[in-house]
Amino acid sequence: MAHFLHKDSYTFEDHPLFEKVRIAKLAGNAQNSPVGVSMLEFESGAQVPVHVHDDSIDSIYVMSGSAEIFADGKWRPVSAGDYCLVPAGEEHGVKNTGQEPLRLFIVHSPPLF
């Protein structure tokens, strides 16, 4: 069965692990989805520190704002329209380097939530 969400039907909530980061969970284990889909919104200066998902890939699309993504052992500048695929087991992180909110579209496979 298809899972459809209208843009007005999902809400952002405080991320349970990271300050000044909000998350809208769009799909995941609750929908029996093989992927976890979410949007993250970072306040200026907010970050998700460098970390590893042992069993899950992290697909990151920058929807708006400017940031740095840590991948392949270094920080790289990114902005709206940029994309990064992080294989399972590799270090990665994100920090909002701009003055405006940063919004990311994230897909994890398998889902984290």
What can be said about this structure in brief?
Helices cover 0% and strands 51% of the residues. It is an all-beta fold.
End-to-end C-alpha gap: 19 Å
Q: What's the total count of β strands?
A: 10
| Gyration radius from CA atoms, angstroms | 14 Å
Q: Average pLDDT across residues?
A: 95
Portion in strands = over 45%
Q: In one word, what is the shape?
A: globular
Low-confidence stretches: none
- Portion in helices: under 10%
Class computed from helices, strands and strand pairing: mainly beta
Strand order of the largest sheet: 1-2-3-10-5-8
Number of helices: 0
Please give the largest β-sheet.
6 strands, antiparallel
SSE arrangement, N to C: EEEEEEEEEE
Descriptive account of the structure:
With 113 residues, the chain is an all-beta fold. It has a domain at 10-39. Helices cover 0% and strands 51% of the residues. The chain is built from no helices and 10 strands. The strands form 2 sheets. Strands 1-2-3-10-5-8 form a 6-stranded antiparallel sheet, with no helix packed on it. Strands 4-9-6-7 form a 4-stranded antiparallel sheet, with no helix packed on it. The chain is globular, with a radius of gyration of 14 Å. It starts with 12 loop residues before the first strand and ends with a strand. The model has no long low-confidence stretch (mean pLDDT 95).
Helix/strand layout:
Blueprint: E1 13-14, E2 21-27, E3 36-42, E4 47-51, E5 57-64, E6 66-71, E7 74-79, E8 83-86, E9 92-96, E10 102-109
Antiparallel strand pairs: 1-2, 2-3, 3-10, 4-9, 5-8, 5-10, 6-7, 6-9
